[in-house]
Design brief:
The structure is a single chain. The protein is globular, with a radius of gyration of 17 Å. Helix 8 packs across helix 9. Strand 1, helix 1 and strand 2 form a beta-alpha-beta unit. The protein has a single domain, classed as TIM Barrel, CATH 3.20.20.140. By secondary structure, the chain is an alpha/beta fold. An 8-stranded parallel beta sheet has the order 1-2-3-4-5-6-7-8, sandwiched between helices. The chain is built from 9 helices and 8 strands. The protein binds nickel (II) ion (NI). Nickel (II) ion binds next to loops.
């Protein structure tokens, strides 16, 4: 009874066992998966995965680091893909100033255009924001993101920022990082925000939780994340899984149980 809200199963690190892994997820308690595009190519592969597996949905979008590859023609293609029935969000989109590549102006331009796209198709956004707290907030505010909603994926900012986003109608994506020794700030955020605002995510193949930190991640490790959240909040693991699944169904506008 777990909803995996953010995975990258098109990644070459799943080349050997993608089929076997995705097929067995429902038996292992991972009912639904949203595979998230991060480039034009991975969006294309995401779409193919949604067509192949009933329990896999997708998000279409271009990650800030990949925005240098966008032009009018490819953006046009993206606008068609987001209309697909099993594409339930626009993402992952945002700003990443950690590497600062491509230039901030380019990242901002395509972030804004993809926000407008989400608005146009009325689908939520999956936001990637790293070392860019203020600009991300300003741009989302400018485009009245509260009317679209979505998730701040792999949340890494302050409690104050988390509260502002929740007020804006956003969910907070929590993954393997919450189990890391040095993640005190994130654990504080998890402790102080309501469970109704949290989504479970892996970002696999990245961000494997303890005790698998550094290995290839997959949705099979989500119970470690759920356990940590349950421990922080002093509630049962079942409650964490059930509520976060309901949150995800709500955000992605997926009706009823699909599997
Ligand atoms: Ni991701």
């Amino acid at each position: 009874m777990i909803f995996e809200t953010h995975a990258h199963y098109e990644d070459p690190r799943f080349a050997e066992d993608r089929e076997a892994l995705l097929t067995k997820l429902p038996q292992e308690g991972i009912d639904l998966v949203v595979n998230v595009g991060s480039s034009l190519e991975s969006t294309k592969e995401t779409l193919a995965l949604t067509k192949k597996y009933p329990h896999v949905y997708g998000a279409a979008g271009v990650h800030p680091e990949e925005t240098g590859a966008l032009d009018e023609e490819s953006f046009q293609w993206l606008t068609q893909v987001v209309e697909e029935e099993k594409i339930v969000a626009v993402g992952e989109i945002g700003l990443d100033y950690y590497w600062d590549e491509p230039a901030r102006e380019i990242q901002k331009e395509w972030f804004e255009r993809q926000i407008l796209l989400a608005r146009q198709v009325k689908k939520p956004m999956i936001i990637h924001s790293r070392d860019a707290a203020q600009d991300t907030w300003d741009i989302l505010k400018k485009h009245r993101a509260e009317e679209i909603g979505g998730v701040i994926h792999c949340f890494s900012y302050s409690l104050e920022m988390a509260k502002k986003y929740i007020e804006m109608g956003f969910y907070i994506g929590v993954g393997g990082v919450v189990t890391f020794k040095n993640a005190k700030k994130l654990r504080q955020v998890v402790a102080d925000i309501p469970l109704t605002s949290i989504l479970l995510e892996t970002d696999c193949p990245y961000m494997a939780p303890e005790p698998h930190r550094g290995k290839r991640n997959s949705s099979l490790y989500l119970p470690f994340v759920a356990e940590k959240i349950a421990e922080i909040k002093g509630i049962s693991v079942d409650e964490v899984c059930a509520q976060t699944k309901e949150n995800a169904m709500q955000m992605y506008q997926i009706k009823g149980c699909q599997v």
